[in-house]
Design goal:
The longest helix is centred in the first third of the chain and has 20 residues. The strands form two sheets. The chain has a two-stranded antiparallel ribbon with strand order 1-2. A two-stranded parallel ribbon has the order 3-4. Helices cover 60% and strands 7% of the residues. By secondary structure, it is mainly α. The protein has nine helices and four strands; from the N terminus they run E-E-H-H-H-E-H-H-E-H-H-H-H. Helix 1 runs antiparallel to helix 2. About 11% of the residues have low confidence.
Amino acid sequence: MVAMGQSNDLRLLPCTSKAVLPFCLQLMLACFKLHAFTDNSDDLSLGHVAVLLQHDWPQGELLFLKAVDKICQQGSFQYENFFNYVTNIDMLEKFAYLCTPEGGRIQLEPLPNQGMLIRHHTVTRGITKGVKEDFRLAMERQVSRFGENLFSVLHHFCIEKIIIIQSLP
C-alpha cells in the first residue's frame, strides 16, 4: 500500500501501477514545476512538465500555457525527448503554431541531434531549407501517435531513470 495524504488525510492505494502511477506523476510534476518556472530554469524541466501535464489534461492546460509563455520569452525550446513522450494533440498543435510567423517563429528543436541535422541540410540543401520540412513530417508522425495508450507512454517516461537523473539540480 502507498499512503497519499493532504493535511491530515491518509488514503491508501493498492500497490498496482494503475493506482500508483498517477500519484508518482503528480509528485514528479510538483518537483519539475518548481524548477521549470524559475529564472535559472532549463528546457529539460519545461519539457518534463509538458510530458507530465498530459496525464490530467485538460486540467493542466493553464500550467502548460504558462510553460508556452516561458518558451516564447526565451525565443527557443530544445527538448530531445519531445517525440518520445508528447502525444497530446492540443500540445502538438500549440508547439506547431509556435513555429509559424503568427506564433512568433519560436525556434523549436525537439529532434534529437537537430544541430547535426541543420549542419547537414546547410551543406546538402542550402541554408536549413529542409529542416522545416523534417520538423513538419516529424510532427505529422507524432500526431498519428495521439491514439497511443497514454498510460504506457507516461509509465515509460517514469521508468526512464536517466531522464529523471539528468534533471536533478
